[in-house]
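Long-time lurker. I teach an intro course on protein structure, and each term I like to show students one example going from raw sequence to a predicted 3D structure in C-alpha cell notation. This year I'd like something fresh instead of my usual example. Would anyone be willing to generate the C-alpha cells for the chain below so I can use it in lecture? Attribution to the forum is fine with me.
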Amino acid sequence: MTFGFSLPPSMKGADANATRVKLVELHDQIKAIPGVRAVSFSGGSFPLLAEDDITFYLPDREAKPESESDKHWALTYRIEPDYFKAMGIPLKRGRYFTEQDDERAQPVAIIDEVFARDLFGDTDPIGQRLQQGNQTPQTIVGVVGHVKQWNINNDQSEKLQTQLYESFRQLSNRSYDLTVLVTSDEGSRVPMEAVRRVIYANSNQNVIAKPRTMNEVVGISLAAWRFPTTLFYIFAVVALVLASVGLYGVISYLVGQRTQEFGIRLALGAPRRDILRLVLSHGLKLTLIGVGLGLLAAFGLTRFLQKMLFGVTATDPTTFAVIALVVVFVVVLACIIPARRAVKIDPLKALRYE
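-- Reply from a regular --
Happy to contribute to a lecture. Here you go:
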C-alpha cells in the first residue's frame, strides 16, 4: 500500500532534526502494527507516481564541472532501509541501507545497475564517491537493479536514466509532502485502518492522501493500453470463430462432394475409422497450412505489439506454441461434425446420391 503523507502545519517551522525525530517515531509506530512487514517514508522519485532529478559529479574521477550542464544527471530516491525489501528491488553488489545510516553516519548512496554501467564501466563502484554541489561527498555502498520509472510495460531507451538512492534519515530534508510505503506479511492485506489510527493518533493534523495498492498504481499506468488490448482480444476471438466456421463449411462441402466416393469405399469394405481419418486429415492439413502462414505473419507484426507487452517478449515461443495448439484444437472440433456425418453414410444411399 502506498499513500501521500504530510506533516501538520505546526511542524513546518521545526528544524530538520525535529522533523526527522517525528518521522522516525511515526515509522516505528506503524511498523509495530500487527501484520505490517515493512515501512518506508520516501521523497523525490517514486516509480510511476513522481520523479526528481539531481546533478552530481564524481570527485575521485573528475574535476568539479564549471556549470550544471557539465554534470551528470540521475533520478533520485530518498528512502528508508525497508524500501528495497518492500519494493522487491534486488541487490546486485555491496549492501542495502541500514538503520545506522542516519545523520550521525558518513553520507552514503546506493546506485542502480544502469548508473554503475554508464559511469563506472568495468570498475567496481563500491567505495567510489559522488558529490552534489557543495555537499559532503556520498560514498557508494551498493548497486541494485534498475526500476522502470515511467511506464511498467515499456521503459523507452531515451528515458533509461541512472538512478540514485539516498538514505532518508541522513538528509536535511525540509520536504513535508512524502510518500509512505507499507507492506504486509505474506498472504495478508495491509491493515490500512490501523495505519490511519496510528497516524492520526500521533497528530490529528497529519494528512493522508490517495491510499492505493501498488497493483492499482500499476493498473493506472496501464490504463491507456486497456482499450486497444480489449479490442485485440475481441478481434482474436472473432477471428478464431470465423476460422472454425469457415473450415467447418469447407469440410462439410467436401464431404457432400465425396459422398459417392465414401459410399464406394464403405461398400468395398473400408473401415469407417479410415473414412473418419481421411476427413480429419484433410481438415488438419488445411489447418496446419493456415497456422504456418499465421505464425509467419505474426512474427512479422510483433514489433508493433512490443510496447503493449509486459513480462513477456513479442516473440515468446511458449505463447506462439500455445496459440497454435489452441487453433488446431478448435479447428479439429469444427471438423468432427462433418467427419462423423461421413462415417454414418449408408453405402446404398451414397451410390444413388447425386
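Some talking points for your students: The chain has ten helices and eleven strands. Residues 223-257 form the longest helix (35 residues).
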